[in-house]
Amino acid sequence: MASKPQLVLLGYVDEQISSRNQQMASFSVSKIGGTPDWCVSGGEIPMCKRCGRRQSLVVQVYSPLEGSLYHRTLYVFACVTQECWNRSNSWTCLRSQILDPAAARTTSPSSKSPPSVSSFGGESWFQDEHDWGGNDNDGNGNADNFNLASSSQLYLDNMAKTGGGRSNLNNINSNTASITEVAQKMESKLNIIEDDPNANEAVCGAVGIVGCEGEGVEATAVIEGSEGDMIAVDTPEQPTTDIPALFQEAAQIDANAEVTFLPFFMVSDVEPPEDVAFSDHERELLLRYTHTTGHDFREEEIAAGADGKGDGVYEKDIAIHGDVLLHKFKKRISRSPQQVLRYCREEGSSPLWLHPPGQSEVATKCQFCGGSMVFEMQITPQLVLHLRVAGVQGTPLEFGTVTVFTCAASCWNEKDIIKQEAVVVQCEVI
Asked: What is the pTM of this model?
């Protein structure tokens, strides 16, 4: 029996935090940069183990566990000294927790269960499993116009078959007649004479109104042809990446200065499946279905091929340069290239490695309780583009990927303020 698909949650950079929205920031809000919002007062920013410099907050991730009585937040710090880049001992992950009074009142001791991963950022991902039309956006925030012509034809066919179809079609015919009348009125108002250069003086320029006697008619154009042949022109989006900054040399920052990255809120979404042309909401429902039932429709396609209904084998992409892990990393990230963070604390989950980690790099035992460690989240290299320091040109920090392993039991005592977790940093080997 196939294993259940793992639910991976992705983090994206959102609105910049400023004085206008600063009141929204708290330990229960995920963000990039800025200063840490500690769950418990008394938390201190760590120092770099290599050079002794005070580290800078890279991400703050609110990550409560299902069945736990605690709010729980992870804080990842890094040293911006260039010689410390891409070194695991120059990064630190701290975990802080605080008892949730509401959960403590509603949960009896006998009903406690081992903590497991819950919704990323404290949000509910699947609010309505049966509302397939709840989100019409694609992965880039654009309207989903998939198969518009076919949908329109199905709508017309349905109207013709239903009881109200006749009246609806009559309305369409009446609208068409109205358009024809407008066109005829426009033609009479224009009264174009080819030999007279002043023949069109009655037309009020390019304001879309024909005639100047107060009875102007709004100009309307009717494009003939099937809807499938039409091309929708979208308004170009404002670029969000500062391309010239990518070619700047590494920033020269005073070695004694405390560096704070510009803060941004971080939003999250479910990782889209591979090669599935669904809307965001449909992908969420598909993931929920496969995650809860263990049934994957793509396995049916493979089985169908084994029965003679298809070739039964998907062509594997093989990295020409032979670096299989790097190829896998890039291919998986390409599902949603703007992601800056990956979160999955489910049993058996693992990070996307750029190259095989050393045996001593990955911690297997918690330094506090001696229990096992599990993979929880991973920072992707896309975040480098968003790490900026006010008044400093260039890149203040570089890395390939940063993986975080945490105590499986999320051990915590009443007097604890912070606890350190394990970090593994990798750079891309060229």
From this structure: 0.62
